[in-house]
Amino acid sequence: MTTSSWRTLRNVQARARLERALPPIFPAPVLRHALARPLIPPTPRLAVESYWRAHILRADQLARALAARSGTPEGWTWQLGAEGRSGSFRTPPAPFRDPAYARGRGACCICGQPVYRFGWHQDLWGSGAPNARAGWHAACVTAWKFWIAPHAQVRSLKLRQRHRCATSGKRLLRTAEVDHALPLYRVWREHRAAPWPELLGYWGAPNLQVVNRAVHVDKCRDEAAERSQTLRLSRFTVIEDDGGFQVIEDA
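Given the sequence above, the corresponding structure tokens read:
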């Protein structure tokens, strides 16, 4: 059997299985996307997941909008290394993954909103209750992967910028790299008290840019020098006395 005939047979079987499992109401864009795939997903849930993987920037926007709907949980603050929390500022803050603020099954552990059939974010089926077996939206999972590894989506980000370097304006080369316009260490240092939904934008598309490698190298060098200087200054305490100011090195 040739590859072409195998794919045709496989897609006939997958389409039949998908159509048998489809409910009377199903998101039309998702179905169109599924039927246009080289390999048709055989179940509605796989069709939803495939749709969001193909629309990364849309998933990012939706996940941040859902987070804004949930808002910052009362009493939660962004901390590093605490129980249930990341030990690095490179991972987005996720209060609903913290055991103290988790909402349990039926609610997304990323955005906190109810999860419905097939990992969808709206109750299209009028069930009136979330899916008690689900713990995340398909869109939010896609967005989370995008936030922690944006370099994997360089093609989508290049297209958004019309293949122009965000810094120099020159045409993006094949070696172009994804960069956080505002470095994440500065987000932790300067914006950690911001509302949680607002913080997510620093990992998402609003703070991501594609720049040519030479530009990125220069930017990383400047950021490293700035961080080094900040760390050196943090070793000293400035006090005011009768004669002016004194700089004392901390023990």
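The two ends are 74 Å apart (CA to CA). Try to locate this feature in the token string yourself.
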